Amino acid sequence: MNAERLPRVVIVGGGFGGLTAAQALKGARADVTLIDRRNFHLFQPLLYQVATAGLSPADIASPLRHVLRKQKNCRVVLAEPIAVDLEKRQVKFADGVVIEYDWLVLAAGATHSYFGHDEWETIAPGLKSIEDATEIRTRILLAFESAEYEGSEEARRAALTFAIVGGGATGVELAGSIMEIAAKTVVQDFRNIDTTTTRVILFDGNDRLLTAFSPESSERAKRTLEAMGVEVRLKAFVTNVTRDGIYVGDEFVAARSVLWAAGVRANPIGMSLGVPLEKSGQVKVEPDLTVPGQPQVFVVGDMASVTSAGKRVPGVAPAAIQMGRYVGKLIKGELAQASHRANVARKPFVYWDKGSLATIGKAKAVAEIGGFKFSGYFAWLIWSLVHIMFLISFRNRLIVMFNWAWGWFFFSKSARLITGDSQMRIDEMKANEVVIGRELSKLEVPRP
Predict the structure, then answer these.
(1) Domain 118-262+355-428 maps to which CATH number in 3.50.50.100, 2.30.110.10, 3.40.50.1980, 3.40.50.1100?
(2) Could you read off the pLDDT of 412-445 as tens digits, one per residue?
(3) What pTM does this model have?
(4) Which of 167, 271, 357, 415 might form a disulfide with 383, Cβ 3.0–4.6 angstroms?
């Protein structure tokens, strides 16, 4: 006699929303499958610290199989779905393989948006993945290496100029961290350049930074960055990006390193649903986070466009976690009661805004929690404790705490590694080969 077939719950994406949904289904009478193109869960709020050499990738990532190892009703599949067939209830893959589902949770996240200028991506990388972070880290460190042997002051200034596009949390965090690297971390490491002359320019098209915060906190963040030496340029719209710099209107700013922190675009798998989308590709979901007309198909996290209490739910980690928990519990409850077979009204998703946090640098941050506004050291302490608490594993918490403590006392960045072909990367950044050769010959060091 064949065993009873359990309902199949397929979850696409192992980020905050997808992983939380899977964990909420623990003990449910269901066959749960979590699909992700990576084998790990990434703690994205600390990704900028990998990009600025404060942490290593493994410090903020945990293998999905390890996280879910004790959940017997859940399996992990390493793959990347490309489409969903709502009529056939299938998730499709590029090689022709399909997985059938009874319940589907789409939590595939988002990537950066270049607002119709995808050709800028190779010049100005965004920050959404481990690969993005290590690429940005390499570019930051190579900027100092190439400046060390530039032949002209103009070329040296361009090499030591960082242009960051986007004044949200990521842009603010990158700007502050890069300035700290130049002013504190590597100041004694080079002989031919003064790294304290590094220029960091933060561009944003809005009239203030951190638009998710109050105007008061935004102004505090701006003043803090400017006190650190960051140039903040508001109402500045980037019109072109080249390998030599960026254009703001007709003005050209020479900068070898351009980093992108403006705009997001939802995973394109949402387009296969054939339902209304936002301009950013987010799926316009019902109050219970379902796709219109599909009560067994949910969209959570950065892929979902939903309002709660009359306000748009932001694309932040706490919102994705709450969505994932809501959907997981809803599915588990309806499976237990078999109420999904009847048209039972569901309680809508309600987002609990626990506050907003953004760090700027060492002992510098802004925080808004429960109507209270904080800045400076106390806000930074809150930010640190919250991020430590939300890391998945105990090991990650210990390592991050140790690295932060070490950096606090010694202004050291523990992961200053340039990966890949360094000489090729320097060539790409237009380092002056003639000057490099001449300087090395003076030191009587044979050139490789």
Answers:
(1) 3.50.50.100
(2) 666 677 876 655 555 655 544 444 544 544 444 4
(3) 0.89
(4) 357
